[in-house]
Design goal:
about 40% helix, single chain, about 15% strand
């Protein structure tokens, strides 16, 4: 209502991209800005579906960038990167942050280095409670004790826990 075709529309808090999607459909040039990588991913998929050419800048591309994200943004980045689904609960999730693609196996995300045995031990309980025999923990790095606990869980309980380092996802 307040612009003409060819005008430039700025949405400084574009979120999932509603205003810029409408601007694109109405032949306006547009620029969207948001602090959330999760929102930008949603916005990009939405705009590409309607034929827009999207050039994203400033998204996390290095491990250092990922260390700087807020915890839920980091968790969202990991779950999206593995094409998984999010746990329906953000807090009180009983140790499961999401589920793997296809198999729907439990995934736990830790935005820390040197994740240890206690985390693996607690995740074993989460896997068993969920009724699975396999799961994934994603973190920046793991201790030797964590790897030993994974081996123990496999030998004693038949549980497969895969320790995934963020570097493999970048």
């Amino acid at each position: 209502a307040s612009s003409r075709p060819g005008d430039i529309i700025l949405d400084p808090f574009c979120g999932c991209g509603t205003a810029i999607a409408v601007a694109h459909k109405l032949d306006r040039a547009w620029l969207g800005i948001d602090i959330s990588p999760t929102a930008l991913g949603i916005m990009q998929r939405r705009l590409e579906k309607i034929g827009a050419n999207v050039d994203l800048e400033g998204l996390p591309v290095t491990e250092d960038d990922l260390h700087e994200l807020r915890p839920f943004e980091f968790q969202n980045w990991v779950i999206q990167r593995i094409n998984g689904t999010h746990s329906p609960r953000k807090t009180g999730d009983m140790g499961i942050d999401g589920y793997s693609f296809m198999e729907q196996l439990p995934v736990q995300v830790k935005q820390s280095d040197r994740v240890g045995r206690v985390t693996v031990d607690n995740f074993e309980t989460a896997i068993e409670r969920y009724g699975a025999s396999k799961g994934y923990i994603v973190a920046f790095s793991f201790t030797r004790n964590a790897r030993e606990e994974v081996a123990r869980a496999k030998a004693e309980k038949g549980l497969e826990i895969e320790l995934v380092e963020v570097a493999t996802l970048v």
